[in-house]
Amino acid sequence: MGEKPQAARKANGIKRGDIVEADVESLVYGGRALARVDGYVLFVPHAAPGDRVRVRVTRRKSTWGEAELVSIVSPAPERIAPPCPLFGSCGGCSWQHLPIRMQEHWKERIIAEALHPAQALQKDPIVIEPIVPSPTPFHYRNKMEFTFGRSEPDGPLLLGFHTPGNWRDVLDVPECWLHPAPFNAILTAARREGQRQWLSAWNPSRHEGMLRHLVVRWSDHEQAALVAVLTGKRTGFDFEAFRKALVEACPQIKGVTWGLNAGKSDVARAEEVLGTWGEQSLEERLGTLRFRVSLQSFFQTNTRGALQLYSVAREYLGLTGRERLFDAYCGTGTIGIFCADRAGEVYGIDLVREAIWDARTNAEANGLRNCTFMAGDMASALPSLLAAIPGKFDRLVVDPPRGGMDKRALDQLLALRVPVMVYVSCNPTTMARDLQAAVQAGYRIERVRPVDMFPQTYHIECVTRCVLAT
């Protein structure tokens, strides 16, 4: 056998724990940067294209590895200082060290690369239009979920996020650059009152403790908040004192809920409501449309960005006022309702019954009589809907969860042979998979437009227009 190339020999010599210098070339979906050492690929967090960095290898595979940033030997010209002092240890933001225009550039690149397999299946070029920037780069998140903890039994109460890669530890977060400023006062008050009552924090290893999660939602329209505190016990918690402390610190709070969450799964949801005060929902606006939003109902995280996202989706649908629109995975009906004044009829299906109740309420609140929303699994609800209405759908909009569509549901929707399908996605990987299936089923991808709903992170929304090939 011949001698291995020099680059391969050097790459094979890299071991876990080694500290090496590498040149950073690009950013990839997931937030990390791609760097190379003599041709060997390393994925590194918090690096920027153009950096030369010293990194410690933490994982070693035959053709690629993972590493942690040790130091920056020479920074990229575009690199900036992150405004948040917790950047690098929090994990909530991955790209604060990059200017917003550079973030947008790499998000466009990530979308283009994800679509390569679909492009290979069709002759016509896929047109990727310029990214729609977020209206604001910071303080855009309208909902946050925080976790309580203590570093030691007698230590101070912590309130923030799980340390990246460690579900047991909590990083204390005095303030966050992604949520509205009033949330910081709420965090401070909750931490102080929990400490005053000397309440234990939930221990995820032993599955016991009192304070577990704090959930906060914001309405841009009302400039008001809802708060839920979730505890692992029914007794020993002074809800009234806790509620008063929150409202005194932030008068914009319109409602507070106390919920029980004693399950093993680390999900910020109440198994049972133990106490309430004030309102249980807020009103949000998208243009002139009104939406009722409760603490747990789904609503796009970036409210002002949602208006841009839905505007692109409506444009791609090409509605003239006569079409029958099917809103698959409709949630609380936001996309269907946003398009209803330009459609003849709107039908929506979602698995979550509470979301459908909100969708019906939202349609009624906006005086829309051409919207029908059904609760149920796609496999059973769609045949029932088709049996109840004559004719076919003219337009289809799909906004699935991050994991994309399961194959059975996707096959059902593609079998409808709707002339125009608009796919809204928050995950380029699952979007690419589903769109390949659409092309193989006879669709042609015409236009794609990324929409930056999550500045400072690698997450990206994307709208795709597909037409049935003739």
Largest sheet: 8 strands, mixed
Cα distance, first to last residue?
54 Å
Q: Please indicate the percent range of residues in DSSP E strands (runs of 2 or more).
A: 25-35%
Let me know the average pLDDT: 94
Classification by helices and strands: alpha/beta
- Shape descriptor reads globular
Let me know the CATH homologous superfamily of the largest domain. Answer: Vaccinia Virus protein VP39
CATH C-level class of the largest domain: Alpha Beta
**Rounded radius of gyration (Å):** 24 Å
Order of strands, main sheet, comes to 6-21-22-20-19-16-17-18
Helix proportion = 25-40%
Number of domains: 3
- How many helical elements? 11
Under the CATH scheme, the architecture of the largest domain is 3-Layer(aba) Sandwich
CATH overall fold name of the largest domain: Rossmann fold
Question: In terms of topology, how is this protein built?
Answer:
Layout lengths: L5 H7 L6 E9 L5 E5 L2 E5 L7 E9 L3 E11 L25 H15 L1 H5 L6 E2 L14 E8 L6 E7 L2 E7 L9 H15 L14 E9 L4 E8 L7 H11 L3 E8 L11 E7 L2 E6 L2 E6 L8 H15 L6 E5 L5 H6 L5 E6 L2 H13 L5 E5 L2 H11 L6 E4 L8 H9 L4 E6 L2 H13 L2 E9 L9 E8 L2
Helix pairs in contact: 4-5
What does this protein look like?
By secondary structure, the chain is an alpha/beta fold. It has helices at residues 6-12, 100-114, 116-120, 182-196, 239-249, 303-317, 334-339, 353-365, 378-388, 407-415, 428-440, and strands spanning 19-27, 33-37, 40-44, 52-60, 64-74, 127-128, 143-150, 157-163, 166-172, 211-219, 224-231, 253-260, 272-278, 281-286, 289-294, 324-328, 345-350, 371-375, 395-398, 420-425, 443-451, 461-468. The strands form four sheets. Strands 6-21-22-20-19-16-17-18 form an eight-stranded mixed beta sheet, with helices on both faces. Helix 4 (182-196) runs antiparallel to helix 5 (239-249). The chain starts with 5 loop residues before the first helix and ends with a strand.
